[in-house]
Amino acid sequence: MNALCLDDWIVTKQNVEGQIRTFQAEFGVMPDACPKCGVVGRLYKHGAKEIEYKDTPAFGKKVVIVATVKRFKCRECGATFMQHLPDIQPGREMTRRCAEHLIEQCRERTYAEMSRETGVDESVIRALCNAEYEKIKPARRPQAPEVLGIDELTLHRRRFV
């Protein structure tokens, strides 16, 4: 296991500066087949790109993973693609566990609080939580009371003193 507690990640450097802990890392699993044509063994490395991903806070500090993501090209079909990172939330520059943490916390805390804690922009947190709400919305059946006493003095035309 490494300092990130993520399987198959190789941490090459750690740095703590102020309230941010930064990890330089790369994912150690390389693809075997082209995701476009499916041919096995005809890939070659086609450069790399550094991408910053937010992670859940640890030890009172924001965590940033600066990942060196490898690019590959298929000799068969010519497709170029980035290395698949299973621990990264699709469509977001954060880890899956960071997204899960934000979704769990959004019921009790404001987006601004969570943004300050993680470094993730409020609009990204809002979109993430709204997408989660849309998933559970069809199954949700809110219950309303049969009788609602507003003034706390009269209920069903009976006066309570």
Structure overview:
- The structure is a single chain.
- The chain has 161 residues and is α+β, with helices and mostly antiparallel strands.
- The protein has 2 domains: 86 residues, no CATH class; 49 residues.
- The strands form 2 sheets. Strands 1, 2, 3, 4 and 5 form a 5-stranded mixed β-sheet that branches. The chain has a two-stranded antiparallel sheet with strand order 6-7.
- β6 and β7 form a beta hairpin.
- α2 crosses α3.
- The mean pLDDT is 90.
Helix content: 10-25%
Assign the structural class, choosing from mainly alpha, mainly beta, alpha/beta, alpha+beta, or little secondary structure.
alpha+beta
The oligomerization state is: single chain
Number of helices: 3
Shape: elongated
Give the termini separation: 66 Å
Helix and strand pattern: EEEEEHHHEE
How much of the sequence lies in strands comes to 25-35%
Can you tell me the number of structural domains? Answer: 2
Overall number of strands? 7
The value of Rg in angstroms is 24 Å
- Flag low-confidence runs: none
Please give the largest β-sheet: 5 strands, mixed
